[in-house]
Request: fold
Amino acid sequence: MGKKVKDQNQNISVLYHALVFAVIFGTFLGIELAALGDLLPYPWDAFKFIVAAVLFSFLLFYLFFKVLGLLPDVRKFFVSIGLFIIISFQTVILWIEINRPVVLTDTKIILGFLGALIISGIVSFGAKGFWNRLLIGKKENSKRRFWLFPVSYLVLLFAGLGIYSIFVHSKPLRKEAIPVTGQEGKVLLLGIDAAYWPTLLPLIEAGELPNFERLIKEGAHGDLPSLVSMYNPFAATITHGIKSAAVWNSILSGKSPFKHGVKDFVYTQIPGFKHPFRYPLLPSFTPSRKKIMNLLHLKHRPFNSTHRKTKSAWNIYTDAGMEVGTLGFWMTWPVEEINGDLLSDRFDDPLLPMRWFPEDLVTAEAVDTVLANIHHPPQEEMDDFTTFRYDPDYETNFPAGSRKYFEHFMLYNFIKSYYHDKFRVKLGLDLMQQHSYSFLAVYIYALDTAGHAFSRFKYPELFPDVTAQEVEFFGDIIDKYHKWIDAQIGDYLQKVDDKTTIVICSDHGMGPWTGVKWEKEELQLSGSHRKNGIVILWGPNIKKGVQIYPKNLLDVFPTILYLTGLPVASDMDGSVMTSAIESDYLQNFPITRIKTYETTHYKFLSHAETEANDSYDETMLKRLKALGYLK
Reply:
């Protein structure tokens, strides 16, 4: 009988210590992940997420103690050591997130993470202390001890999250009209995805890119550091933690992904959660990721404009009563009603509503022509880039996974991106004839597609098993696309007036694969992102022939606001690139600031209002997989 009681008490002791350890570890881990996924402002979703992390941790630690069969005294020692390791680990993670290069050191972000850590400590340690001192008193009762601890933990956890959410949701909002405080200039932004000086400069020096050369000599230029994702930043993937969807939304808002909310290409939909977890919850390197996701009923969904939490350029210029045009940037579908023209990134998907605004911006026939060219590209256009004979029926004519299949697959992705670029560039030129935009932004994407697909043919010495014929077919596509872009810049240079500043920037650079060892099976992916992109400013008030050193790409939009006569908002994370602007202009038109552009009257579309459904999401997921951004 005595042995039975002893075993029972031992079992309860094991359960209790596993629970204590799980509460502390799971709370720290859960709050950290909930903060990254933007769940903390929503107490009920955050509560469920953290409790799930604790339960998962409890299972692990219970099995750990059971398997090791540790004596209670030894177990307590291990718990103490474990607590020290966990707290140290969490402190290191926090330090990395705050101090990692190009990651913001914004005061609110620092205080937010410190607040999350304080909540973790109060909830995990406080629940145990609260129970020990107030509920139990001097009497030891193992069963009571086991049950009262989790109850007090849950109460403290929900209360802590509720208090935290009150402070998070108290944002300063603007009520009055936006003042135009400077000289009303105009800006044309050409966003060239993946443009990179180490690739551009040799072509410029060879005289192959005369318009780039002119802009550099007559304007200001420099490296433009990108933003590394706070989630999985060191992953050896083609993005290296640089997520174009998040980055372009930062360029066009002047705010970090933490503020505007579009943190990746996809988010995770968790069953029973109202709000999205704003990252892929399981990293790409997670073993058996697909099986785990199916088991937990997790789904990847592509971000869209309804998930953006702050205003972008087109909203700000609309509020200021200024005309704006934006063509084709990531995650702009569904479009919003603005004072100007907005073409979404998914303009060519006939299944979707709300692909452009206003309704007469483009015609369905023009989009059908784009689709026809993608599926059956005219050979004379393809000859500008490659002598390879593309077979539109390659999916049926070549075995899936064969080398020929991949060659056609890579070329198809490039062709699709090229015709998207061609459509946007031509539309931008046409619109400039009809409108006098304060701000026009045009997205050029296919350089990124070409870099990912054809880097191994441009740099065959770095990759195994590249044939001379493949180098002949595909080795010059990247350089030739730079020349095509240069020609488009020349067309825009002929259209701009003497009040317009041209800003060219990229979200990141591109070079041959630098991740984990490249495998021959990954034939369609041989280029990866680089941390530095490019920036060029050219126009009436820009210094001539100078090199500039912006902090990062968050400096782009504050500079655009200033050049168009609008104040810079204090809740933006970048600064005006004053080193690029003539000192006389800066003196005559000082930089002014307002607290925020966010207003009480502004209403973002809800996901339901777009009539979005699974089939809409599936087309975007297929596109992201084809480009190598999803596995």
